[in-house]
Design goal:
Blueprint (H helix, E strand, L loop, with lengths): L3 E8 L1 E8 L7 E5 L5 E2 L12 E9 L5 E9 L10 E8 L18 E5 L4
Length: 119
Amino acid sequence: MQCFVSIPFTGSGATVYVIQGPVNGVNASWAVDNQPLNYVSPLAPMSSPAFQLNVSLLSVQGLVSGSHTLVLTALDYGGNSSYVYLDSVIINDTVVNAPTSSSSFSSATSTTTLSASNS
């Protein structure tokens, strides 16, 4: 059984941050808007018994501005379970228009942060 999270967002990009732990590594695949799967560079377990917050796992940018869905799926790490502790997701909203035949381009930027809570 695969464990996954679906993250709907409105914008032109997203950066996913995780918490890296001391026991298991982090390995995952991801896709935006049902496009082909992409794979993250696996993160090895921490060498100390501590947890590291705000570890960048992936960033997807340059999407056409609008509604999107990012699906993040946990994969095995070196034959063992992989723990993907979602820390936060930063949503980028640089206006990227769909390609047209004209040569104009408009741009504006804003950022939204989504964070997991322990409540």
